[in-house]
Amino acid sequence: MTEEESDDFAEAMRDVAPLNQANKVVRSSPGAAPSETLEVRREAAQNFAAPSIDPNYLTLGDVKSKDPLEFLEWRQDGIQLAVCSKLRRGGYAIEAELDLHHKTVKEARAEVFRLIDRAYHRQWRCVLISHGKGLHSQTPGRLKSYVAHWLIQHRLVLAYCSAERHRGGVGSAYVLIKKSPESKEQNRERFGLSSDPG
After folding, report:
1. Cα(first)–Cα(last) distance of the chain, in Å?
2. How many Å apart are CA 153 and CA 57, to the nearest integer?
3. pTM of the prediction?
4. Residue 32 to residue 175: CA distance in whole angstroms
């Protein structure tokens, strides 16, 4: 570059300010190690994409079909027949009701799981779930079939049966919930029994 060209260049660059270092972008070469910021971003993206563990273990897979007009009844091993008889007669106070009409199977699954968990922690003994018959559905009795399966699958359900006619009949179910340790202790105190040792 000649002296004249150098002067021309200096004149042309007179009003140009240097870049602010904070805004400076450094492009790494293909073989260079990734920056710490890039690593952090990549890790965050991977964590965001990783599926979270769903505590709801009720199935969304295929279940055994129930007839829309079938009377449902089930009890865990060890639950007395007298308890089921009382449940069938509506002998337990209904402490919560869940209406699943117009719900998808996925929505119903979430609501059933939530209700039973809440019932256990609030010490509700019996709840009513209205699942409908599904007589006019493309797959009759579909939601009823899922609810019947979920109630057997759920660890906190002791027994269930179709409700009395005025409570929805075969389109609804009485569900008996396991007692929490606190509820058991309260009953022992109420009847003047001593607590279990340990």
Report:
1. 94
2. 8
3. 0.68
4. 63
Residue 177 sits in a domain whose CATH number is 3.30.1370.110
Q: How many CA atoms lie within 13 A of 153 on its CB side?
A: 17
Q: How high does pLDDT run on average in the chain? A: 83
Interval 1-41: pLDDT, tens: 666 666 666 666 666 666 665 555 555 445 545 555 666 56
Question: What is the identity of the amino acid at 6?
Answer: S
Number of domains in the chain: 1
133 vs 13: CA distance, rounded Å? 83
Which domain covers residue 171, as residue numbers?
Answer: 73-187
Q: Pairing between strand 126-130 and 157-162?
A: unpaired
Say whether 130 sits in a helix, a strand or coil: strand
Asked whether the beta carbons of 103 and 111 are under 8 A apart, the reply is yes
The amino acid that residue 27 corresponds to is R
> Which of 42-51, 71-80, 106-115 shows the lowest per-residue confidence on average (mean pLDDT)?
42-51
Q: How far is residue 176's CA from residue 101's CA, in Å, rounded to a whole number?
A: 21
Could you tell me if residue 50 is inside a domain?
no
Please give the helix or strand (H or E) that residue 184 lies within, else none.
helix 181-190
The token duo for 196 is 């279990």
Does residue 160 contact residue 149 with C-beta atoms inside 8 Å? Answer: no
Q: Other CB atoms closer than 10 Å to residue 58's CB: what's the count?
A: 18
Q: Is residue 29 part of a domain?
A: no
